[in-house]
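Re: How this chain folds, sequence and tokenised backbone to follow
Notation: Tokens come from a learned vocabulary of local backbone shapes, not from coordinates.
Start of record: The labelled sequence and token lines come straight after this line.
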Amino acid sequence: MSKKSNRVPEALVSGKEAPVKYVYPFGGKDADGDASMRNLLGGKGANLAEMSRLGLPVPPGFTISTECCTAYFANGGQFPASLKAEVESALQKIEAIMGRKYGDPENPLLVSCRSGARKSMPGMMDTVLNIGLSSKTIPGLIKATGNERFVWDSYRRLIMMYADVVMEKAEGIDPVEGKGIRRLLDEMLDQYKYIKDY
């Protein structure tokens, strides 16, 4: 039992199984995980938690555990019932640390979604950046940055990454077959360059 609390876990008192925790927040010099939790949080998640605990300047975030993935497959492709509330709670912690709010038109919080594994696999895992940009939040970010081109380019990257990583994988599109959005866009750009003689 933790030295921080004399409280007896409910599972020991009631005989009920304790609820499974799926979301592990980190940032603001605190974390729910640490470096020893690679099997549960993946290497990236465990290391981010450890760095947060050490007080290093780590952007706040949260890791969804491997137990959530296991539960998803065990329940026929259904997420655990508690996951949404855990994610919302972790997102509120990020908002408090960053002083921004997800979806806020004036002061939007942008987040990234990164996949991870126990061992480092550079270039093998997918990432989606700039989550939170939308037609509602773009004007606020343009006002905050003073750089319209940067914001629109960030939005373009979000759309490209989401289409590639989320939508095409969900549809089973294999980029090798030449049907992926990145490949199609590259072909269109090559045609344009040919027409314009670039």
Notes: The chain has two domains: 13-99, 100-198.
